[in-house]
Write a structure and sequence with these properties.
Largest sheet: 9 strands, mixed
Catalytic activity: tRNA(Ala) + L-alanine + ATP = L-alanyl-tRNA(Ala) + AMP + diphosphate
Shape: globular
Cofactor: Zn(2+)
EC number: 6.1.1.7
Organism: Nitrosomonas halophila
Mean pLDDT: 91
Low-confidence stretches: 431-451, 457-464
Distance between the termini: 34 Å
Bound molecules: adenosine-5'-triphosphate, magnesium ion
Radius of gyration: 23 Å
Strand content: 15-25%
Oligomer: single chain
Main location: cytoplasm
Length: about 475
């Protein structure tokens, strides 16, 4: 079953159960300036859940484009390393605004997976929050799941909250067992980090309101928010283990191989490029432009990582922008806005490629020379120089070093950055050293904002 059919079947299923189909909102959230990107289906309904917005319906379903490449949800460092993470993905979701609750949410999900999609029951596992006897009871006594495949989890993984205060509640997640050929243990076990049991669907039961003192008060009208990754369920339906082997990615990876002139079809770099073109093209479609701060800097970092992967495959000419056309072939029907923005997106990516091409080669030479000597840790001064002179975002340098098992000195980088800031201050804020000119970036000083972002990225990177 093709991805597009699964998307369609999902929406039809929930429509037939009284849900209104709501189109995907943009990746730049219209209602929340604190959120970097739309990272879940519920984002466009946040105010409805908070009771600050009313809709003409109490049940909705959507296929929402999402990006998780910065902020609280950041999967950038997982891309190319796990079978299940993308920076850009589609989240299929059904929502109840004070209408049905746990029972229907669980029964709908089960019916869709088992009856509509025909997934064998014995491949499915479910988790509930440790204290959520109500959900456990529905799974055991109404669905009839084998007790051995229902796992109680007491960690925050199974308790969702919108923020430090506000709506929150337990979750129940559904996992698919890809079989013993893949390493990894069931949810909740000590080797659950493997990719054998893959989380496909998260059902969130918004049950409480947390007040400023941390106390939980039952909501008068509890709600439901669910999310299922389209690429993950497509992998299940197409009987492949990795998301990168599904129909949509097969086409994109073939296109990436074509534009980079690569024969090595199993290269991880092709997966990364295929992932990144989706994120970058949709971000530009939704109004983000590569830049030095905030959303624009996240976009720039993803583009530069993609370009570097092309370089790794031996492609030193601009190639990335050429993939926009292939992406439009694969996803344009579902996303007419991408189709309409195609030329603009191509031009923006091309310009960014040309700009980075001016420094990439020299930067790589410097970095390669050091990596030939250094087997443990890249010094902060070097990381800073790559950043400052060659336009290598810190996470890009870390990504290259990681491939060789080499770490980078975060504290040293921060110290070098702080020194730079001092120098800039001493000599008047805007007269930066000559080095920056090479990056083609504006000479205005943006180091401070990007330092904070880079430090965050590095912290995540170090956590593994
Ligand atoms: P994981 O534990 O695998 O990182 P998650 O618990 O962070 O997933 P949720 O926040 O519960 O994910 O999102 C709901 C669903 O969206 C997940 O069950 C999964 O199917 C999908 N999903 C989440 N993150 C990604 C991603 N980076 N790429 C593809 N699909 C994703
Ligand atoms: Mg995650
Ligand atoms: Mg999870
Ligand atoms: Mg989850």
């Amino acid at each position: 079953m093709k991805s597009s059919e699964i998307r369609q079947k999902f929406l039809e299923f929930f429509e037939s159960h009284g849900h209104v189909i709501v189109p995907s909102s943009a990746l730049v959230p219209g209602n929340d300036p604190t959120l970097l990107f739309t990272n879940a289906g519920m984002v466009q309904f946040k105010d409805v859940f908070l009771g600050q917005d009313k809709r003409a319906y109490v049940r909705a379903a959507s296929a929402q484009r999402c990006v998780r490449a910065g902020g609280k949800h950041n999967d950038l460092e997982n891309v190319g390393y796990t079978a299940r993470h993308h920076t850009f993905f589609e989240m299929l979701g059904n929502f109840s605004f004070g209408d049905y609750f746990k029972r229907n949410a669980i029964l709908f999900a089960w019916e869709f997976l088992v009856d509509t999609l025909g997934i064998p029951k014995d491949r499915l596992w479910a988790t509930v929050y440790a204290e959520d006897d109500e959900a456990a009871d529905i799974w055991l006594n109404e669905v009839g799941i084998m007790p051995a495949r229902l796992v109680r989890i007491g960690t925050s993984d199974n308790f969702w909250q919108m923020g430090d205060t506000g709506p929150c509640g337990p979750c129940s997640e559904i996992f698919y067992d890809h079989g013993p050929e893949v390493a990894g243990g069931p949810p909740g076990s000590k080797d659950a980090e493997g990719d054998r049991y893959i989380e496909i669907w998260n059902l969130v039961f918004m049950q409480y309101n947390r007040d400023a003192s941390g106390q939980l008060h039952p909501l008068p009208k509890p709600s439901v928010d669910t999310g299922m990754g389209l690429e993950r369920i497509a992998a299940v339906m197409q009987q492949v283990h990795s998301n990168y082997e599904i129909d949509l990615f097969r086409d994109l990876i073939a296109a990436a191989a074509r534009v980079t002139n690569t024969q090595e079809l199993s290269s991880n770099s092709l997966k990364v490029i295929a992932d990144h073109i989706r994120a970058c093209a949709f971000l530009v479609t939704d109004g983000v432009i590569p830049g030095n701060e905030g959303r624009g800097y996240v976009l720039r970092r993803i583009i530069r990582r993609a370009i570097r992967h092309g370089y790794r495959l031996g492609q030193k000419q601009p190639f990335f922008h050429l993939l926009v056309n292939d992406l439009a072939h694969v996803m344009g029907q579902a996303y007419p806005e991408l189709m309409a923005a195609q030329e603009h997106v191509t031009a923006v990516l091309r310009q960014e490629e040309e700009r980075f091409a001016e420094t990439l080669d020299n930067g790589m030479e410097v970095l390669e020379a050091v990596l030939r000597q250094e087997k443990q840790m890249l010094g902060g001064e070097l990381v800073f120089r790559l950043y400052d002179t060659f336009g290598f975002p810190v996470d890009l340098t870390a990504d290259i070093a990681r491939e060789r098992g080499v770490a980078i000195d975060q504290a040293g980088f921060e110290a070098a950055m702080a020194q730079q800031r001092e120098r800039a201050r001493a000599s008047g804020k805007f007269s930066m050293q000559a080095g920056l000119e090479y990056t083609g970036l504006p000479t205005e000083f943006h180091g401070y904002e990007t330092l904070q972002q880079d430090a965050q990225i590095l912290a995540l990177y170090k956590q593994g």
